[in-house]
User: Fold this.
Amino acid sequence: MKPFAFSAEPLQPASLRRSLADPRCGAFVSFEGWVRNHNDGREVRALEYEAYEQLGLKEGARIVQEAIERFGVDHAACVHRVGALALGDLAVWVGVSSAHRDAAFAACRYIIDEVKHRVPIWKKEHYADGDSGWVNCERCASHAQPPPARQAGR
Amino acid sequence: MKPFAFSAEPLQPASLRRSLADPRCGAFVSFEGWVRNHNDGREVRALEYEAYEQLGLKEGARIVQEAIERFGVDHAACVHRVGALALGDLAVWVGVSSAHRDAAFAACRYIIDEVKHRVPIWKKEHYADGDSGWVNCERCASHAQPPPARQAGR
Amino acid sequence: MREIQVEYFAALREHAGCGRERLRTAARTPRELFAELSRRHGFPELGPLKVAVNDEFGDWEAPLADGDSVVFIPPVAGG
Amino acid sequence: MREIQVEYFAALREHAGCGRERLRTAARTPRELFAELSRRHGFPELGPLKVAVNDEFGDWEAPLADGDSVVFIPPVAGG
Assistant:
């Protein structure tokens, strides 16, 4: 399986998991991001993900490869949904298999953290009050600033 | 579902996972222990697990409850196989769902670590050379000592 | 003047009113190109943007070449 | 003398040659009971054992009562 992929169809964790099976591996750790019914105190009804796929595929594959090398795990993969999702839907899946669990936990955590900050995917939330909006990464929003075009020439 | 269980039948991660679904939860982390084809440099062909179930059920449930309280996650559960297992079989499953992923990762890790040290389950490995043996917890075996009966009266 | 293709995603796509556009521009760098497009489309403040040129992360100050494809990347919110 | 039920698991079960036995014993504590059974069955060294009395972790020095059920717990290797 590819190290990183986008999917417009519902993710199938059972078959994703099987793709990382290996008799050398004693540990498998997976992370799933589910669509929550609330965010930042607002009631969420549904959401959609939009990705810049050409770049996202490359960056996602780099992240998975970094995790494999850094933590010495045998297999790792990540798939991210795009399109319209309902409450409870699986938005992102990360799986890692490894001889031992220390490395599997660390690699899985690394991949989801990096994917959330580096892969160009955007989330539009639809709220119970009819409003909707694109969600910015919290860490970035806290020091929001004008895009660089305004700041300086060369 | 029960917080902790033993199963003589193959574990079904897909249905176990569904039992922790909750629209309040944005994060789900699971750990699976798979039967490896090697241990301590020896080639393993198969193994069996034997549990002291009456006590194990209580101790396992305590561990899951500790994780829920300590990390503030919404749901957690663990199931451990008993009986004869083949290479690649799923021996133990831990799942945690939570609003955020920090707590889900920490609780999942806590549960598998504690289960491996506190729940009375023993593993007998069958090796490629025809030998077999009960595996002791590595940490314990390193300071093996006569059982207390030999050491002192009262 | 260079011919540049720009692709928009998410909030920028909605503000631009289109997913992509092809334009002839005097902008020499992504920074100058963004300033030009920002004036035209009235982009809102979105926090620190990154830029991609030909589907790789790029430099705001690197010279643009004729035929380049450019994407301005708002802060991401994956997962 | 007390009547005690002992249950064996894993390596101890194989060495005892049975999964459980019921016995009358003068042993006053789990420690004394283990010494008695160890002489009879020739248990190997298994590292530090724990003991359970009536399906809860117990104390090696706590007095045994008539009818108690006792399990000696070798080091575990779950997962």
Remarks:
- Confidence is low (pLDDT under 50) at residues 138-146, 148-154 of chain B.
- The CA atoms of residues 25 and 99 of chain B lie 4 Å apart.
- The first strand of chain B starts at residue 4 and ends at 7.
